[in-house]
Amino acid sequence: MELFLNTFAEAGLLLVNPNVVIVMLIGAILGSIAGALPGITTTLAVSVTLPLSFVMSPEAAVAFLVAITVGVNYGNSIPAILVGVPGTPTAVLTAIDGYKLHMQGKSGLALGAQYFGGLVGQLISTVFFVALVVPLSQLLYVFLTPELWALHLLGMTAIVALAGKNVFKGLIAALFGLAVAMVGPDPVSLVSRFHFGVFELRGGFEVVPVVIGALAISELIRSSRQVYSWKEVSGGFQGRFPRWFELRRMMRPIGIGAVTGTAMGVIPGVGGTAGTFLAYQQAKMWSKHPEEFGEGSVEGIAANESAQNASQAGEMVPTFGFGIPGSGSMVLLLAALTVHGFVPGPLLIQETPEMLYAATAGLLGAVLVLAALGWPIARMLLGIVTINRSIVLTIALVLSIIGVYALRNSIFDVVVMLVFGGIGYFMLRYGYSTAAFALAVVLGGSFEGLLRRGILLTDSDWGQFFTRPITLTMVIISILLLVYGIVGTIRTSRRMRARVAATAAEQSATSRSVATHGRPGVTSDSTADPNSTPSTSPSPTSDSPESGTPSTQKDPS
Amino acid sequence: MTTEPERVGEKRVVDRAEGMDKRLDLSMAIVVTAFGIFLMIAASLLSPGSIAGPIGTGDVAFITGALTVLLGLSLVIRRLLRWRADPQLLPTEGSADVPGYSASLSRVGLVWLACVIYTVVLPWVGFLLVTPLLVGALLWLLDVRRWRHLLLLSSISTAALYVFFGLILQVRLPHGLLEGVL
């Protein structure tokens, strides 16, 4: 309890530090702007704004980067409501209810629910974050090398098993990340490995360029596959801010969202999207007006927004408590912290408790900033979503290049980032999880080091890695997660095959009817075109909230 | 939503915009398997190092390579076993495109290439000369075609980046051909 209160006290001290307040203000506003741009995820926002943190003290930089992530979560629902385009996948359900309210002339009510739900949810989840992360970090005092190794194994397996559609591809991505992490000195004998005569690789890859390449550049390059404009804003603010009785009605869904979002965020690999869907479904179940859900429900928006914001704090629990990030954006956040001298891993908080204080200050400060400025920011962001998408992609690419160059004034780092950006593009397109890859790159060195040093320390007793109670539990959970992932992959594969077969049969019937009667919808016994290829894509629907937005099938980020 | 008019030469790619080509998926699996074999060979050629232990310098890498080969082969076999039954375009397992808009793989290649060329020539030509060209090229590739916009955006963004990185953050941006001037 003392540590719990101490964390808030230290965070409070940071919140009265003018430097920290200014960077949090900038972070929350920049994050909101980035979030309002459809397709700009937390990962991209952190990678693009990372260079801004170079001039800050380590504590201010942590608070700044955390404030960015809070701002993104706030901002991404504004286009969802006003334009029907979710800024990120977590805002999909807000787009459904929010856009319907907007079209009914109640955008004030929808934005009010988003504002209130998001900020209260964030505030509640911040308390959960500290309440969970403090005991977790203390628990690590009893962890020895085998436990720490098992923790790494669990973190990597969770993200492989729960993220992406094909667990085999996720495993390959993680193994590739391990291989990349092995370039450079051997953690035990310091023999230089896999540098192939390249001088710059003798010390291994710098983590930040590799991670930014795999997570951010790959996504930016993938986005350049298509050129289109973000949807025109239809109308402006209409209606009023929710009244007291309406705010009271939102309290239950907000509570549900905060608990569900935090809980789902804590599990590595699950992420915010699953949390928002679960919270929405739960809120509907407990609501006195379930019929409003999907038709413009303020409770639905409040639950979704609360879960979305809470999941961010939830994802920070394993990231800060164990030093094991649970999503792509957290991998990048952790990698970004290495620039400021923090060492990722299970001892992160024990060795640098000031980082926990700064992260808590970042969460609380961003909530305060957005509570004060969120409403005018929402009005301002109405115009932001009409910015030319091509310009945003170009500026993000150039900023990433110069930002990575600025890390060490190294052209080689930029080359590394672009190479992994290119590889990451193909990984994204073909379902090899870039988040699993990036996580393995960040943790791979210590994963191998802990295993090998642990074996030496335990006199080659392999049993220590599999029989101690905590290691055994974590290894069993890892195996169960993998089995769960494999079963999920097989089921998904069967569903996909069934869908393809159904589409093929439908198209075949249509082509037969067209061939015989000259119009679709009338079947005949004539032979189908053997060369017809079934379409696997959904047809674009202009009313769909997802239309006009970049893919929602992303790694957790 | 208005659908963007198709441009010449993009028709072939448009058909692939919203699915996963099984031939490319198979190619990826083969590349993965080849990488695993390469890793196994490279790991087995490593010197053992001075500290002897039950797990040697290249052992973890060798196991990583072996697992990669196994998983890669499983993907190859899965694809080959269903080669005839599956259509050429499969539901994507990765990030899908936005439905209704044409997609261009060549644009992706050109954007990446522009960034690589920029990185290679940056030290020789200099930040202030080559950055406007990169911004202009990227905007052009992403269909911003008005010369006034291209010139304005290129020059303003380069100036802003120079002020922030070069002057405020004191990053040593390469001067290249302007070395004696700046």
Protein traits:
heterodimer; A: 557 residues; mainly alpha; two-stranded antiparallel sheet; 69% helix; 1% strand; globular; B: 182 residues; 6 helices; 2 strands; 2% strand; flat
Overall description:
The complex is a heterodimer of chains A (557) and B (182). With 557 residues, chain A is mainly alpha-helical. In chain A, 69% of the residues lie in helices and 1% in strands. Chain A is built from 21 helices and two strands. Chain A has a two-stranded antiparallel sheet. In chain A, a hairpin with a 6-residue loop joins strand 1 and strand 2. The longest helix of chain A has 49 residues, at 469-517. Chain B starts with 10 loop residues before the first helix and ends in a 14-residue tail after the last helix. In chain B, helix 2 (22-44) runs antiparallel to helix 3 (59-81), helix 4 (105-125) packs antiparallel against helix 5 (127-141) and helix 5 crosses helix 6 (147-168). Chain B is 59% helix and 2% strand. The longest helix of chain B is centred in the first third of the chain and has 23 residues, at 22-44. Chain B has a two-stranded antiparallel ribbon. With 182 residues, chain B is an all-alpha fold. Chain B has helices at 11-14, 22-44, 59-81, 105-125, 127-141, 147-168; strands at 20-21, 89-90. Chain B folds into two domains: 15-92; 103-182, no CATH class. Chains A and B meet through helix 9, helix 10, helix 17, helix 18 and helix 19 of A and helix 2, helix 3, strand 2, helix 4 and helix 5 of B.
Précis, in short:
Chain A has 557 residues and is mainly α. Chain A contains 21 helices and two strands. A two-stranded antiparallel sheet of chain A has the order 1-2.
